Amino acid sequence: MAQDIPQKETEYPDGSVRLRNPHIQLMDQDILYHLALGSESHDLVSMFGDVKFVCLGGTPKRMEQFAFSIMDEIGHKLPAGTTLLDISRYSYRYSMYKVGPVLAISHGMGIPSVGILLHEVIKLMYHARVRDPIFFRIGTCGGIGIEGGTVVISEDAVDGLLRPTLELPVLGKLLQRPAKLDKKLARELKSLASAEDPYDTVTGRTMCTYDFYEGQGRLDGAFCDYTEADKMHYMTQIHKAGVVNIEMESLSFAALTHHAGIKAAVVCVTLMDRLKNDQVLAPKEVLDEWQSRPQILVSRYIKRYLSMKGRLSLDGPGGSMCVKSPRRFKLVQQESETYD
């Protein structure tokens, strides 16, 4: 059965992240393989202790662009002669950029990829003693009854059977975790949509699938054992159930952040209306502008928060390495380069 998590189990009294894994404290070193970081090889408190916002998106390029964009928005200045550093470049899997209190990280595609990343990012928050972090997923999706270019703030995340639960086989048993997003955070984001934006910003239920083609009812995959009428009936039914978009990460993102007691939101832009077509037909320059729209909304939230805290115009390195042990650093680098 899915159960809610008491707050005292997910954070310490000062708001820092508490891991729900007693084994970590007994380890000589916790190697975050897919981020090319380690709890004893790197000074994670010095590197990440000031983080407040963790922004995840699909591709390394998109998150690099977001890192440069948020740098301008919050007035973060790098020392002369330096540039942003991909902190996880030795992993060859994910990319991570740090801009003051903001982390921008690529999560790849699908529930397994974002799940692996979240395990390690949540552990990173713990090792760095980060207090009350806020997580965002910034991405793309297919709309249901809404036009391409529309920004969608997820109220709930459900699977292909409309269940708000992530199911995961663990030790031969089916584990269920509720996929819950922060309602207040979603409302705050919606309030930041401007009447001057040349596009709509809506809220609604997000369906997360395990597959891009058959799992989303597409007609253009290598296999298709249903008719167009079958597809349209299904799309109409989920639309009536409040589903406004479909993507492939929100269920895991919502379930793992909720299980960790971390405030989180999902903001995506639609690339097409799935009631009209399956393929992305908009030109590249249009898609590039559309994909900036969720970033703009999240940037508004971050900028407003920092303005209220008096933390704009921050100076500092763009994700510099703080190595505690050169020997362990080399070990972590080697492990991350070879670990599957």
Automatic annotation (TrEMBL):
Gene Ontology annotations of biological process type: nucleotide catabolic process; uridine catabolic process
Nucleoside phosphorylase domain sequence ranges: 52-303
Secretion signal span: none
Record family assignment: Belongs to the PNP/UDP phosphorylase family.
GO cellular component, one term: cytosol
Gene3D superfamilies linked to this entry: Nucleoside phosphorylase domain
Source organism, top-level taxon: Eukaryota
Ligand binding (phosphate): 93, 137-140
SUPFAM superfamilies to which the protein is assigned, alphabetical: Purine and uridine phosphorylases (SSF53167)
Gene Ontology MF: a single term: uridine phosphorylase activity
Chain sites annotated for binding substrate: 216, 218
InterPro entries per UniProt: Nucleoside_phosphorylase_d (IPR000845), Nucleoside_phosphorylase_sf (IPR035994), Uridine_phosphorylase_euk (IPR010059)
Name of the protein in its database record: Nucleoside phosphorylase domain-containing protein
